[in-house]
Specification:
The complex is a heterodimer of chains A (78) and B (699).
Chain A: E1 2-4, E2 13-18, H1 26-30, E3 38-44, E4 51-55, E5 58-62, H2 64-67, E6 71-74
Antiparallel strand pairs in A: 1-6, 2-3, 2-6, 3-4, 4-5
Chain B: E1 5-11, H1 17-25, E2 29-33, E3 40-47, E4 53-58, H2 70-80, E5 90-96, H3 100-112, E6 117-122, H4 127-130, E7 132-134, H5 136-143, E8 146-149, H6 158-166, H7 184-193, H8 199-207, H9 214-222, H10 231-256, E9 257-259, H11 267-275, H12 280-299, H13 301-321, H14 326-343, H15 346-362, H16 364-378, H17 386-391, H18 396-401, H19 409-418, H20 427-438, E10 443-444, E11 447-448, H21 449-475, E12 485-487, H22 496-530, H23 534-538, H24 540-547, H25 555-568, H26 571-583, H27 590-598, H28 605-615, H29 624-629, H30 643-655, H31 660-670, H32 674-698
Parallel strand pairs in B: 1-4, 1-5, 5-6, 6-8
Antiparallel strand pairs in B: 2-3, 3-4, 7-9, 10-11
Helix pairs in contact in B: 3-10, 5-10, 12-15, 13-14, 14-22, 14-28, 15-22, 19-21, 20-30, 21-30, 22-28, 24-25, 26-27, 27-28, 30-32, 31-32
């Protein structure tokens, strides 16, 4: 199912499909947020923002605003 | 043998780069600034085998060569400027074994610059715990480099790095991939226009504003078709470049690295669950703050009392044992009390930096940023503003410099503007002495009134900072992108050596930085207070003797009258009287006025100034507190330092922008006089008005 990273729930994993929006800072790509990489939502901060991600072993936090520009394909939960 | 090998230490943040630096240089290091900017420059000397020395620069941590901050710019400028004196003979890229993939991105970029490069894989002690194994010979071949596997924690592998530095001439300079494939036509044409330049260097110049070697830059810009692509196209190409590099890295690591996930322990997840919990996360953060304040106030009071009394007796000793004269007086009444006023801060500053560096080193600070971002954003700040606001309780200067990693300019600017409201260590001596004079000693619910007052002042500082941020957020019409990326590093036991060196170095720079100003001011003040114009000052003795001739005064009382008459007609007394009309509505006399004016340089000067003013001409070894308690209000009578004027002074110091160094830093960080001027005007205005209201209501 095609959606954005902002819609991922805690504990879910997905594959990043597109990061071409100019709203996404280059720094994020450099930290490993690239198409084809797997992303896991580790934790959501209190008040629902920001979100804490594990992208292929790289742990980082971003705001939902940015996450909503990152397209993903959800993986069915095993 | 005279030439030193220039070494640049490069790496992502949180890779233990500084630990490697400390391991290589030990105590042979110094911290300064890069010329013209406030970015910290750490350099040190490393002794290599066979008597060779290496000059090592620890560059600011960066994720790539695409700079997005002043600190990161330093890295590019140093690496691109071949003629610079710090241009490295060899680059050491430090990476952390758990994030090798991400760390290698920067490595491949450095390799493209064709500088001899070696790769250090740090934190090797974690490998078995995380189930990681590496095929080093394979990686060395693929990455075209020598690799040193290092554990700074266990002090392993450092000798290997030294050996590699010594043989820097043998290190490969071949890039490990061809990034220009992302748009061959474009890059070929670029190379044709500049046949003598390195392609990757050209690419960095096109995409960044790096200001390496002025002449080079102008030469490039002079050529018309240097920039043929739009900004969006360039950004797309940068994205492609990043993807390309990662493809190479993924392929390499697929063969050269194996990770057995069953070996990995899950400490990180467990700790995260508690430390970023929606209730426990905040409770734990609150208790950590409480612990820090407890340390700063309670634990540091023992060494502080000791320092205080030592300086008092030192001054006394100098006065009694050196031959009487101008120099002895200057030493005992000007310099020693002035210096004592700086040295007394050392315990507090050291404690604060101790805690901050432990929180940073352990990885906890990122969790606080994560936890606080949503709340802080409501006030126009960022989660990353928490670090400056906490560091601001030590000193606003490092705090303002710590705002650099805030990506949004508006959030960063607001943080810079409000940080000086937090109660910095320099306000503390002012608070402490006034509280001890005007707040009674009783207790309320087991807490002393005096301690409560102090806590209220801290809360007032934070609350004002937050409210000011809220107002600024509404008022300022600044459009800026609000992205926010924080790395959540693994939890680590802080390395004692790193923490100790940070504390030592920060304390040293505070003492010498503030010390110079305070020393200069106390000498000037002593002269101004010890000399005066005209007959009132010079004939003070005969005037007073004549005046009190009819009254039978003891010699001691008469001397005291003479001294205070002299002070009143000294240069400083005249200046003080001139500003008295402005400050008397706040409940202050001319002596406090002088202290306020001189403490514009730095708040802590206030106590030092009063100490100097009151000790000029006085023989008794008396604490400054007793002298202040004896002062009488010239207009209203009664003690000068009473509840109303005391509260008024506390409020004045809570709000006023009494720190030249902070203004200078704000100017540098915002690159304009507009913001520091605004700060000075509004903060001091607010201070004056609240102090005025407080005194008029309470008197």
């Amino acid at each position: 199912m095609q959606t954005t990273l902002a819609h991922l729930k805690r504990g879910e994993t997905a594959v990043i499909t597109d990061v071409s929006s100019t709203q996404i800072p280059l720094k994020l790509l450099e930290m490993g947020c690239l198409p084809g990489n797997q992303v896991e939502l580790v934790q959501i901060a209190p008040f629902k923002d920001p979100i804490y991600l594990n992208i292929n072993g790289s742990h980082l936090a971003i705001r939902k605003e940015t996450a909503s520009h990152i397209l993903i394909e959800k993986l069915s939960h095993e | 043998m005279s030439k030193q090998i220039n070494v640049a230490l490069i790496g992502n943040p949180n890779t233990g780069k500084t630990s490697v630096f400390n391991a290589l240089t030990g105590l042979y290091q110094k911290v300064g600034n890069y010329p013209g900017i406030t970015v910290e420059k750490k350099e040190g000397i490393c002794k290599l085998p066979r008597g060779v020395k290496a000059h090592i620069i620890d560059l600011p941590g960066t994720y790539s060569l695409n700079a997005s901050s002043l600190d990161e710019n330093v890295v590019i400028e140093l690496l691109l400027n071949k003629k610079g004196k710090d241009f490295p003979d060899i680059a050491i890229v430090v990476s952390d074994v758990e994030n090798l993939k991400r760390n290698l991105l920067l490595f491949t970029q450095i390799k493209d610059l064709e500088i001899p490069t070696i790769l250090v894989i740090n934190m090797a002690d974690r490998m078995s715990r995380k189930g990681i194994s590496l095929d080093i010979p394979f990686l060395e071949a693929e990455l075209k480099t020598k690799i040193a596997v290092v554990s700074t924690r266990k002090n392993e592998g450092i000798e290997q790095i030294k050996e590699l530095i010594a043989n820097y001439k043998d290190q490969s300079t071949t890039p490990c991939l061809n990034a220009s494939e992302i748009d061959s036509a474009y890059f070929e044409r670029l190379q044709q226009v500049f046949p003598n330049q390195l392609l990757y260097k050209l690419w960095l110049v096109i995409t960044q504003d790096a200001n390496f070697g002025k002449t080079d830059r102008n030469e490039f810009d002079a050529v018309a078709d240097f920039k043929t692509k739009s900004k969006t196209d360039l950004k797309r190409l940068q994205q492609k470049e990043t993807i390309k590099r990662y493809q190479f890295i993924n392929n390499t690591l697929k063969k050269g690295q194996t990770i057995d996930p069953s070996q990995a322990t899950d400490l990180r997840a467990k700790l995260d669950r508690i430390l970023t919990h929606k209730v426990w996360g905040y409770v734990i953060f609150f208790f950590i703050l409480l612990l820090i304040f407890q340390a700063i106030y309670d634990w540091s009071s023992i060494p502080m009392d000791f320092i205080d009394s030592s300086f008092a007796s030192l001054g006394e000793w100098v006065k009694n044992s050196l031959p009487a004269g101008v120099f002895t007086n200057l030493l005992a009444e000007g310099i020693i009390p002035g210096l004592g006023g700086v040295v007394i801060f050392i315990p507090q500053i050291a404690f604060l930096f101790l805690f901050i560096s432990i929180l940073e080193e352990s990885g906890y600070m990122s969790r606080v940023v994560f936890l606080m971002d949503r709340i802080m954003r409501r006030f126009g700040l960022s989660g990353k503003s928490v670090v400056p606001l906490i560091s601001g309780t030590a000193c606003a200067i490092p705090a303002i410099m710590a705002t650099r990693n805030i990506e949004s300019w508006k959030e960063r600017l607001i943080t810079i503007l409000v940080t000086p409201f937090t109660t910095c260590a320099a306000r503390l001596p002012v608070y402490l002495i006034i509280i001890s004079l005007v707040i009674p000693e009783g207790t309320f619910l087991g807490l002393g009134y005096q301690a409560l007052t102090l806590m209220l002042l801290y809360l007032l500082g934070f609350a004002t900072a937050i409210c000011a941020a809220y107002v600024l957020d509404r008022v300022m019409k600044l459009k800026s992108k609000t992205f926010f990326v924080v790395e959540m590093p693994n939890y680590k036991m802080p390395l004692f050596k790193n923490v100790a060196l940070t504390v030592l170095e920060k304390t040293k720079s505070f003492v010498f930085g503030a010390g110079k100003i305070i020393l200069a001011i106390s000498i000037i003040l002593w002269f101004l207070a010890s000399y005066g114009p005209g007959e009132h000052f010079n004939e003070a003795e005969s005037i007073m003797t004549e005046k009190y001739a009819s009254v039978n005064l003891s010699q001691e009382d008469l001397d005291h009258k003479i001294d205070s008459y002299k002070l009143e007609h000294s240069y400083i007394g005249i200046a003080g009287h001139a500003i008295e009309p402005v400050i008397s509505p706040l409940g202050y006399d001319w002596k406090i006025g002088i202290a306020i004016v001189s403490s514009f340089a730095a708040r802590e000067v206030f106590v030092g100034t009063l100490a100097t003013i009151y000790s000029v001409g006085s023989d008794q070894e008396e604490t400054i507190k007793n002298r202040m308690a004896g002062e009488v209000n010239p207009i209203l009578g009664g003690p000068l330092f009473n509840f109303a004027s005391g509260i008024s002074l506390l409020l004045f110091y809570a709000f006023a922008m009494q720190c030249m160094s902070t203004l200078a830093i704000v100017k540098r960080e915002t690159n304009s006089w507009k913001w520091p001027a605004l700060q000075l005007f509004f903060m001091t205005g607010l201070a004056y008005v609240t102090a005025l209201i407080a005194f008029q209501v309470l008197k």
